[in-house]
Structure formats: C-alpha cells, structure tokens
Prior knowledge:
This protein is 58% helix and 18% strand. The chain is built from 8 helices and 7 strands; from the N terminus they run ααββββαβααβαβαα.
Amino acid sequence: MVDARYFAYGSAALALVGALGSFISTNGVFGIIAGLLCLVGAIGSIVFYKFGYVAVPLITTRSNIVVLTDSGYEIPPGQDVILKHVSGIYYASVFLGVKMYESASDKTPEENIVYSEYFERAISSVKYVTKFAMLLYVKDLQGYRTSIETKHAEAQLRLARERDKPDPDVLKLDRYEREVAMWEAHINRLTQGIKPMGLISYVMTTATGVSKEAATAAAKSQGNELRATLANALNVEIVPLKADEMLRCFEWEHMIPPTPQDVEASVV
C-alpha cells in the first residue's frame, strides 16, 4: 500500500534540503530554486499529512499504480477497493466510515427503543452480508478537554457560516447542528466527571464478479446502497474510505491497536 506518510516525509525532506540550500547559497538563481523547493516541500508535507487519503489516490490513479500485498490482495490505482482473485472469481471489498453524532446515553429509553427498531429495519432491508465493526476505548483525559473544546468551537463556526449563507444547505445545517450538540454533550459529561469513551465505527461489504471491473462495480453499488440505507435509518454520516484509511480498517480485521494512545495516533 502506498502510505501517505511516506509522501509527507519525502516532502518534509525536500523542504529541509531547500531551506538548507537557500541559507548556504551564494548564487541568486540557486537560492531562488532552493527557496521554491522549500516552499513546494512544505506545502506537500502539509497536504499529504492532512489530506493524504485524497492526494495519494489521485497520484496512484494518474500513474496507474497497482499495489499487490504478500497475502494476495490487490489495491487498484483508485485505492477505494480491495481485490482478491480466488478460483477464477474476483472478490472486491469496500469500507465505509460511520460518523455518529449522538450517543445512546444522550437518548431517553424510548428514543433508544425506536433507534433500535430503525436499525433492525435497515438491516433487514439489506440483501447481502454486511460487517459492522466498532472499536471502543477509554480516552486519555490529558489534553482531551482542550481538544473537545476546540472541535466544539470549529463546529459552531461551520454552523454559523452555513446559517449566514443566503441559501443555506438544509442537510449541512442538520449535520452541523448534530455535531455541535455532540461536542456539547461531551463537554457536559466531562464536567460531570464521566470518563469519555472513544468510538471508531466502519462498515465492510464484499461482492464478486468474473472480472476486476465487475467485482469492483458490484462492491461499490452495495456500498452506495448501504450508505443511503444506514444514513437515513440511523441518522449518521457515512463516508467511503480510501487509501490509508481503507487499509487501516483492513488491517484491523486481523489486529487492532493495543492501547488507546495507539488508536488515537492511527486516526489523526
């Protein structure tokens, strides 16, 4: 798998070389070139570190890079599906991230019963095997409150900006309002002395086909159906996972991070 971190490290190294070159250069042209290298490297390291899940698939797609693993799995250039060829049949798996903005502890018993009924109805409408995975852990309190307050302020800012638009998006307003409410609930629980729980949730589905293209198309179709079904029934945000985010979930099928710190570090 092409890890975005390698691109980030390479860009940072390029920025360092450019910075050193600009400092030691006595030639004006060489100094300008070194400065440009430093600028490009600095921008590249930030882009790959923060948005590697978008940037890396663009690079691999344009370069037509296919990744083969030791265990026989194949990751095509788009890095949005994992393939395996078994006995003349291609298997394709896609992963979807689930972003929940409400906790069961924030709901009344009646609301939780209704929510469970919606979940059962959503599952019963799915005609193929689907895997729901959740990683649960107790968060480290050190620096957590500051992080939550920062995210709360950012969510409030996004909500305010959307509300100020002449024609605000109703769906975005609803999502931002739920996000603000979620962070407020976290802050309230911390104030009450309740230990914060972390949750990472994703969905996996697999399809088959006689060719890579057929299997990929079927898996993505199933993913899109799941995305619509679960988002509407559970009032959650579902996002397709790509690149290192997808690979991380694939690796978690075999082994999960042993400590809360490892979990936090893997999803930064």
